[in-house]
Please model this.
Amino acid sequence: MGKSQATSPWLGLLTSGWSLAGMSQDKKSQGLDNLASTMLSLAKSMQKQNPDPSMQAAVESISGIVENMKADVNATAESMQALIDKKLNVVHACNVRIPEAGNPSTTWTTGLNPTQQDVVSCRLIEANLYEASTNCSSMVTRCSTSEECCSPLLGPSHHQYCNTTVISESPIPLAATCHSKTKCSLDDLAAVKAIFQAKLDEIEIVEKACDDSRTGCASPLPDCSSSRSHWTLQKQVCDRQQKDFEQQYCDLAESVEGRWYGYRDCHDTAEAALKQEETVQQGLLPGLQQQYRGVLRIECLVDALGSADVAAKLEVCISKTYTAAEWPHLVALRTYTPLTGENSARICTDKLFAPGTDFFKEYFYSDIQTELIADGLGTSFCLSELSTSYCLTAADENTGSPPSTSISPSSRSTPGDATARNLFGLLQKRAHAARGRMVRKLGADHRRAAHGRMSHGFRK
Model:
């Protein structure tokens, strides 16, 4: 007589199968192994008995549970992958925006105040005052002392231009030479005349050298304090304007670098979180694989109990070895770190102008006399004081323009666009240099002409 359903071991087995659904992930593998072992023991002990209705009901129920658990394992693997992909989306969400200045519909340079032209115009005014002050000081320096007028052959009227006391040459030695000619013959007189003529020629040479060195010297010498004061006041105005102009590029660089710092901090933090998530989920894979192995084992036993030759099928299940080939979708999750390609951190391609550098001066101040370009204004080399340097600094081999707020931050230029921009920047730079050389040449011609007119006036 068969066992009652109340005392059937298959009912206990079914209860164990139902309890699997409520187990935590770390206990499901052990639960599945226990269930498979119990099923195998019951199957062996009842091989020679007629099929028990409770066994058939239990096997059918467990088969459904196993199918659900297989789907659960697959869904868990998908959710693990989804958690990794979600962290990758956080990386992609990081972005950097070029700061806006002035009207966002135009390029950044249109909002400059003062502009490059303001600085150049101010310095051109200063150049005239600087030239007047320099010419005055040069003349005073030159005319205050003349070494050419310090010859002992010259008299006190010339020696007044010497810094040291000069004693005129005594004529006594010359008199002694002349008095030694005792005869009043023509030869003696000719010899004396030659002596005096030679000395006279020598005096005329040094006197001419003295007079030439005094060409253009006013008498009395002018007071240059007024012209220097006018130049100094204009220089202060231009220095302030130059500093204000350069400060805008310092502020822009600080802002751009700040945006890139925020972006890189976001990206690096998100990448670290992604790497950690990958490590966690990859660490859960072995347990998930064990669950899947247990599910496959129970599937085999369920099929064996429903077959015509239970004993033979059970032996197949007992001897079967499960490998990773049975669960290729659980071997590895799709990971992304270390990030490469489009997932890697963006690189700043903005070329920041650095006040104080030779390139900055040549690019913006080529129309200004070199000696009038102020250094040490507080803006010089301001980029070197920034705590980060994500962006390039404009240099001779790296021409470019300031970032434009009219361009979308997410837009990417093609290599052809970059080449065109670099070529335009190079042509622009050469035009600046050529114009600067022309202005400096005209200025030099003007100074020479003015100096000629001044000298001519004094000679009159």
